[in-house]
Amino acid sequence: MNAPSNASALDRPALLAARTARYRRRMDLRVTTQDEARRFVNDVGFCFLFPIQNVEMPSLWDAIAGRVVKTSPMHRGYEIERTWGWKDESLDKRWWFYGKLIRGKATLVGLDFLPNFYALSENFGDYEQDYLDEYREGRLSVEAKTIYDVLLEKGALDAVRLSKEARMTSEQSRGRFDRALAELQMGLKVLPVGVAQAGAWRYAFIYELLPRWLPSIPLQARQITREQARRAILDQYLRDVIFTTPQQAARVFGWPLAETHKVAEALAEAGRARLDVKVAGIGERQMVTGGLTPLPLAG
After folding, report:
1. Is the pTM of this model over 0.90?
2. Which of 85, 172, 259, 281 has the greatest number of C-beta atoms within 10 Å?
3. Structural element, H or E, at residue 139
4. How far apart (Å, rounded) are the C-alpha atoms in residues 267 and 75?
């Protein structure tokens, strides 16, 4: 990146402390109510439901735990009860977007911020037609098209009935069905909107088309260019993680590296980021949020 070098060295422990506070990984800052959970998601813009290994981003789990706690299938306690329970209780309330979005992992996005992600999707106008163009051009799998066809015709359905209507109930088709649902969520075409007592576990997500469930999102997204959307997303991400590199950010969002560099430079010009910054204790130079004031200098 052709950006001016920053001569002052930053202190890594101080930056990590700022990130810890931003993630609410402190017991005095932890999220303790559903209203606080909603405010947290709106504050960070977007986050994972649970932390994802090797992907730097806030998570609702960390914010509720108030510290770093490893997850496990056998976990018991307020952390899992609130994280999983509040997520389920929120699905029909339109508190936020929940679905497999960033890196195909369970993601929460504030509704005020969601139009930025929608502006980067392949959804351009008519939700009853756009997906057909994607399918014809080979950008949407046949399984995803089939599921979308069913939801478009039948309305919201739980996953058990949806798989039956899509004729994907066999053991051989189970993986294809799950992958297609993830594909549609990553493309911001469908999302879970509730939980039904269906199937062997008496637990199945109810899915609906996003434009029908959140009709204001496509309308707002039409006013946002792709450049503006990437800039908003990277700016928010940098304010959340405090410091990163263009390479790391590009991997998180699946963006071309050249495009990520371009967006980072635009943020630097606007005073929203500092680029090519030396951080004591980190060999690779970082970009650091411009919202950290004053920036802590190394001793």
Report:
1. yes
2. 259
3. none
4. 41
The sheet with strand 282-289 has its strands ordered as 6-11, 273-280, 282-289, 243-244
Helix axis angle, 257-269 to 226-241, nearest 10°: 80
Tell me the per-residue pLDDT of 223-245, one tens digit each, with 9 for 90 and over. 999 999 999 999 999 999 999 99
Q: Is the dihedral of CA 89, 237, 186, 123 positive or negative?
A: positive
The verdict on 137 and 207 lying in the same domain is yes
Q: Does one domain contain both 111 and 133?
A: no
273 touches 287 (CB < 8 A): yes
> Residue 109's CB: how many other CB atoms inside 10 A?
25
Cα torsion 115, 119, 120, 123: sign: positive
Q: Quote the CA–CA distance of 130 and 134 in Å, as a whole number.
A: 6
For residue range 43-95, what is the model confidence (pLDDT) as tens digits? 999 999 999 999 999 999 999 999 998 877 767 789 999 999 999 999 999 99
27 and 63 housed in the same domain: yes
In a domain, 179, yes or no: yes
For residue 187, the SS3 value is coil
Question: What does the pLDDT read at residue 297?
Answer: 39
Residues with Cβ within 8 Å of residue 249, at least 6 apart in sequence: 234, 237, 238, 255, 260, 264
Name the token pair of 148: 């979308």
| Residues 201 and 242 occupy one common structural domain | no
Chosen domain end from 221, 250, 279: 221
Do 138 and 99 share a domain, yes or no? Answer: no
Q: Residue 297 falls within a domain, yes or no? A: no
Residue type, 252: V
- Sorted by sequence, the CB contacts under 8 Å of residue 76 that are 6+ apart come out as none
Structural domain for 109, as ranges? 6-115+222-289
The count of other CB atoms within 10 Å of the CB of residue 197 is: 9
